[in-house]
Structure formats: C-alpha cells, structure tokens
Amino acid sequence: MSFSVPPSSADLLAAGPAPTADMLAADVSEFHVVLTGDRPTGSLRLGHYVGSLQSRVALQHHVQQTVLIADLQALTDNSGRPAHVAEHIESVALDYLAVGIDPSLCTITVQSHLPALAELTMLYLNLVTVARLERNPTVRAEIASRGFERDIPTGFLCYPVSQAADITAFRATVVPVGDDQLPMIEQANEIVRRVNRLTNTSVLPECRALLSNTPRLPGIDGRKASKSLGNAIPLTATHDEIVALVQAMYTDATHLRVNDPGHVDGNVVFAYLDAFDPDVEAVCELKMHYERGGMGDSLLKRRLIDVLEETIAPMRDRRVMFARDRALVHELLAAGNARSREITGGALAEVRRAFSLT
Amino acid sequence: MSFSVPPSSADLLAAGPAPTADMLAADVSEFHVVLTGDRPTGSLRLGHYVGSLQSRVALQHHVQQTVLIADLQALTDNSGRPAHVAEHIESVALDYLAVGIDPSLCTITVQSHLPALAELTMLYLNLVTVARLERNPTVRAEIASRGFERDIPTGFLCYPVSQAADITAFRATVVPVGDDQLPMIEQANEIVRRVNRLTNTSVLPECRALLSNTPRLPGIDGRKASKSLGNAIPLTATHDEIVALVQAMYTDATHLRVNDPGHVDGNVVFAYLDAFDPDVEAVCELKMHYERGGMGDSLLKRRLIDVLEETIAPMRDRRVMFARDRALVHELLAAGNARSREITGGALAEVRRAFSLT
C-alpha cells in the first residue's frame, strides 16, 4: 500500500533552487502568496530576466506564485493597438516558459480572462478619489513620460486601482516590484484597509513589496535599456545577435590601448559579467587586471559572449520547443486561467459578501 | 395536435396597452431594444411612476426591454453604506413588480450580477480621457450637487463609462432618459463610435434617447420631490398616508375663501390630478370652476385622495403579495440575471473578438 504524501515545507525548501538573498532578507517563506507579471507589449529582454524572471524561477519552488500577463493594463496606454497587445500575450507566455517558469509550480494567467479583476476594480474605484490617483507619484511620472498631459486615458489614471484588484483577488501577500512601484503597493494597501474598515471585517490581507537588490541591467550603450533605443539584448537572442550586440557594447572611453588602466564602474561589459557570469571570483580577478591595465576589451567581450550564450541557449531551445507546440501553450494558459478564475472568483465572492452584495 | 406559435409583431402590438404618445413620437417599435433602470438607494415614489415606471409597463408589450437595478452605480456615491444599497435591491424589485412590470415580458436584472458590464467598463475606460469625463455636464452638475469638490470618488467620475457599458452590453437602441441625462447618451455613443472605428467593425450599435413628455411631478409642497425633504408620495403608500399627504398638499396661497377665484398653475393638487385622474374632461371642468371661484380645496383633495387610492391600491396589493413570497422574487431576479448574463456575455465576447482579445 502506498500513500501520496503532500510535501512538508522542509521538502518544499529542499526541492528547488535555494531561496535568493532577496527572499531570505524579506523572510519570504512557503506561507506567502506572490503575484508578479508583465504587460504584453513586447518581447522580454535580459534586463527582465535579471530584474525579475530569474527570481520568479527561484520563487516558484518556495511559494504559491502567480504570474499575470496584464493585457488589460497594457491596453490602458495602448488602446489604439489592441491587436499588438493581443499578439504579445502568447509571446510573453513563451518567454516565461523559455526562462524556466514551470506551470506545474507557478500559475501563468491572463488578466482579461479573469472577470473578478474587473468586478473588484469597479468596487474599489468608489473608494479612491480622483485627487488621490492624480497624486500617485508613479502615475505622475508615467503620465509625464508618455506626454499625456490633459489627455490621460481614464483607464490609465485608474490602473493603480486595477492593480489593487489584481493583488487582492489573488490574496497576494508579497509583490516583487522595483522601488519606483512602491506607491502602487501603498495604494493597494490603502484600499485593503478601506475595504476592511468599511465592511468591519478583515476580508482582505495587506501585502508587502519584495524589493530586488539586483542592480538594473544597462543597455549596451550604457543608457537605460529600452525597446525604442534598440539597446537591449532579447531574452532569446540568436548567437549572432549576441555577438553583434556584445561587440557594440560600450566599455571605457578612456581605455584606448590594451596596456592603459581601465575603468570597471560604468563599464557595460562588466555590468553584464556581474549579472551573468557564475564564476564570481574570476570576474573579480578580471576587474583587477582591467584596472591595472594589460587586459583588452576583445578578450572581455569574448568571455561575455560565451557567458551569455550559456545563459541564453537553454532559454532559446525551450522557446523554440514550446513555440512549435502552440496548442500546448494555449492549454497551459487555459489551465492557468481556470485555476485563477477559481481563486479570484473566491476572493470576489468574499468581498461581495462583506459588502452584503449577495 | 396543437402548436405553440410565437406571437407575430402585429399580435405583440395588439396584445398590450397602446403605445404611449412618447413611443409613437419617437417611432419606438418592436425592433427596438430598450434599457432602463434605477439606482437601489431608496423606495420608489409616485414621481418615478409618472416619469418612467408607467411607460415601462406600456413598453414591455411592444419592445424587448431590460430594467437594470444599478447597484454598482449606486455604490459610486454610497460606498460608505453598501448594506443600504444591498437592501434596496429587493425593495426596488418589489416596486417594479408592484407597478405591473411583468418578468415574463421584461427582464429585471441586477448590475453587479453581470460581470460583462465591469469587463466592458474596463475596456472603455481606456477610450475616454479624464478631461472628457470632467467636462460631462451631467457629471459636473451631480458633483456640484453632492458637494464632492476635489474628493470625487473615481467610480463616480467614471460612471458615464459604466453606463455606456450597460447600454452596449444589452445592445440597447433606445434609452429612456430625462433631458438632464442627454450628455450620458452622447458619451455612450462617442464610445460606440470609437470602438467601431478602432476595431474597424460595426460591433456596437449607437443608441438614442427616448425623452418623456410627461411633466415632472412636484413634491406635495410644490418643491422638487426629494427623499430628504419628505415631500414625495411613496409608490405603495397606505390609505392613511395618502390622506395625510394630500391634506398637507399646497394648493393656492391666494385662494383663502371658497368663493375666491383660484389658480391652477403651480397648484400641486391639479398637478397630481393631471397625472393620475383618468377623467381628463372632468379635471378640465374642475379647473375652470376653480379659476372662477366657488370650488373649495377640500373637495378637490377628496377627489385626489380617491384617484390616488385607485392608482395605488392595486400596486400596494401586488407589492404585499410579492413581499410575502420572497423566494419567488429571488427566483425572478435569478432568472433575469441568467438571461442577462447570456446577452451581456455575448456582447462582451463580440467586443473582445473585435479587439482580438480571444
């Protein structure tokens, strides 16, 4: 006779990769519910991998994690090109599968397939004033960067409320964000407290931010990586693309001859080696050598090409494999959507009950 | 052998009360889809009957009509008292049944039970700028009358978009409104045109307003009827309430003695007789007599009491009957919600398809 025993938390922790330093510092354990996600407006890049995808792959072994493909949020500033957003839903899903997000460990789901998110947003919109949303520093910065001025789509102004709906619908307790997104977490928790106070319940849990310690990966020209600048390395670049992009990478403008002492700070090649080279000690020695002089850029770049090829090759292979079987990808998304509809529908039902809306 | 034959449009027109003058003037035929509704924030009053309920009872024999209990919209300025809104859902449904809205002819449904409405709202919010909503004259007037100033709940600012979702989800072609609500219809049609243009389809139909010619029923003190002033007659007032309210009714301050000539204009009793007395000729004679002098207020008021009792008694009886069988009321609402979920879900699916969001 045999039993199927649910794994204990010790087993869970033993099963996957070790928790990241971020997770340990933030005391993220298997009791936490984590929600992350991306807007499907383009292919993901190495910067996304370093900044968040990598940590999601680690997190999936330790916590209950959902990755949300936020198509509704993408439409808040892409309403003129819905087909572009729609196309990138599958492409982002493929990127997730490519980096090793495992749908049996981590739910992948699509925002617009979860009606409870829209329903919760409608309820929460009544609990936040227009003035409060206009004061949100993240929204202000993004409005400025998009040049919306007075022509802000209402959905864009409201998206912090929609994010609060996402977070609370999944009962997320931990939300990995960049520090520029902290006002969003604050806004979500304000709504949580308001719902709980209004309904005299504790129907919703507050969440906290999981800030990454990983420095932001620069573009190959040292500027902020951005799709429009074309200075980022795609998550599943071909070998030739890797070579071309690394060859074009900025190093140190003062390092004219091999024997000149070079600068490591602000040197894009070292930023990438720091992010991807598993041999930390060797990178440290390279840095010292480079600073002393006598180390050529071409040698460095050859090393980085090898390191990136090693990082990217398995992702590329997995992406090709899944891209061949689109029916499977749709099936995985459908399963994730079904599971998420149950979870978010449950949360909505509880909020409705708290508001006597039965 | 017998067949159940669906009624032809001629049968439909023959079956019920004659179309109202409003309907004929607006060329409302059986091909139209009509959406009306109320916010469940209190019991309905005779003013609602004259202004809209009466015409809904007539319309239900001629067109496909849905009456929406707009609980989500009620919450946009009642977020602090969700239980109050929730309680009035049933009470408004009872009022509908009391006045003779027949669920077999006209769908009664509850807004928050139709997820497609929230989902369409989320999509439409991206198509309307904040500045456009702030310019909406109806919203401006309502913001002023509620004293919101800068503390406007975001849901309140957004409610024209939510109404556009309601209208389009039911594919309504005719929406009965007061003239103060015309900007709402304009806003809805703007969204319809924007969706059709963006998706290069004609997925959504435009709608038009059905303006009532019926004058607004004043409060018993001659001012605008309002719950807070307590100057309105409840839809299902008891006989004693009718007597007390009619006795307190303003007539003509200059009409001190029976033999004095009296004024008909601005005389609340005559406004009510005009609205409810079926014997138009007799009312006309009364008016002439009153203006000549020799007609006492008490005689007039006795007539009005009888007229109102005759109008209200059957409503009161029906309301008592349905209130005794709350399970039936819930069943009727559940059936209306199920039917409406199908209709609105179908419209949402088509809009999603047009936006490639499948």
Walk me through this protein's architecture.
The structure is a homodimer. Chain A is mainly alpha-helical and about 350 residues long. Chain A has 2 domains: about 10-215 and about 325-355, Rossmann fold (3-Layer(aba) Sandwich); about 240-320, Orthogonal Bundle (Tyrosyl-Transfer RNA Synthetase), CATH 1.10.240.10. Chain A contains 16 helices and 5 strands. In chain A, the strands form 2 sheets. Chain A has a 3-stranded parallel beta sheet. In chain A, strands 4-5 form a two-stranded parallel ribbon. In chain A, α12 runs antiparallel to α15 and α13 crosses α15. The termini of chain A are far apart. At the A-B interface, α4, α5, α6, α7 and α9 of A face α4, α5, α6, α7 and α9 of B.
Question: What brief labels describe this structure?
Answer:
Rossmann fold; homodimer; Tyrosyl-Transfer RNA Synthetase; three-stranded parallel sheet; 5 strands; 358 residues; two-stranded parallel ribbon; mainly alpha; 2 domains
In terms of quaternary structure, the protein is homodimer
Radius of gyration of chain A: 22 Å
CATH class of the largest domain in chain A reads Alpha Beta
**Order of SSEs of chain A:** HHEHEHHEHHHHHEHEHHHHH
Cα(first) to Cα(last) distance of chain A is 46 Å
Mean pLDDT value of chain A = 90
Strand order of the largest sheet of chain A: 1-2-3
Largest sheet of chain A: 3 strands, parallel
The greatest interface between two protein chains, and residues involved on each side, is: A-B, 46 and 46 residues
Strand content bin of chain A: 5-15%
**Overall CATH architecture of the largest domain in chain A:** 3-Layer(aba) Sandwich
Given helix and strand content, the structural type of chain A is mainly alpha
Number of strands of chain A: 5
CATH T-level topology of the largest domain in chain A: Rossmann fold
**Which segments of chain A are poorly predicted (pLDDT under 50) over 5 or more consecutive residues?**
1-15
What's the overall geometry of chain A? elongated
Fourth-level CATH superfamily of the largest domain in chain A:
HUPs
Helix content of chain A: 55-70%
The number of domains of chain A: 2
Number of helices of chain A: 16
